[in-house]
Amino acid sequence: MTAHETYMRTALEAAREAARLGEIPVGACIVRDGEILSVGYNTRESERDPLGHAEINAIRQACQRLGSWRLDGCVLYVTLEPCPMCAGAILNARISRVVYGAADPKAGCMGSVCDLTAMPFPTVPYYKSGVLEAECRAELDRFFRGLRQREAAADQM
Q1: Do residues 58 and 79 touch, judged by C-beta distance below 8 A?
Q2: Average pLDDT over residues 100-111
Q3: What is the set of active-site residues?
Q4: Binding site residues for Zn(2+), as ranges?
Q5: How far is CA 32 from CA 12, 17, 78, 106, 133, in A?
Q6: Residue 89 and residue 52: Cα distance in Å, rounded?
Q7: Which of 16, 69, 74, 124 has its CA 20 to 30 A from that of 152?
Q8: How many of the other CB atoms lie within 10 Å of CB of 23?
Q9: Using one digit for the tens of pLDDT, what is the confidence trace for 60-93?
Q10: How many CB atoms lie within 10 A of CB 33?
Q11: Cβ distance 74 to 51 under 8 Å?
């Protein structure tokens, strides 16, 4: 197993925790020099916070732990391609690398819908996609399939 796969498995476990809590199963972790600094998952529903994405939660935790808003030298692992808000936060936090599992054809901003890393920002992270992609996609598919089934059952009552 590669280092990327090892850390993506940590993000996947966070995504599964999000699903157990009724959140969209997206998980993230931030690593620097082989040490996991933070782990986050979606909390939009439970916190009633539109900013409660896995990446934002992981970034906030890592910044608190390091005592700095700058995350130079850090790698963010996330199960789903970052959205515009999260991609902006990644740029602002100066994260050096992003590794994501599943592409997001509806809102992904690291190659799918747009690529913020291709724009001339002062600091731009390198990104790698497709790490444990099938497992990351399966978590999302399972969650949304269950959600649709529950909604269909509620409509029939």
Answers
A1: no
A2: 96
A3: 55
A4: 53, 83, 86
A5: 18, 23, 15, 30, 22
A6: 12
A7: 16
A8: 21
A9: 999 999 999 999 999 999 999 999 999 999 999 9
A10: 8
A11: no
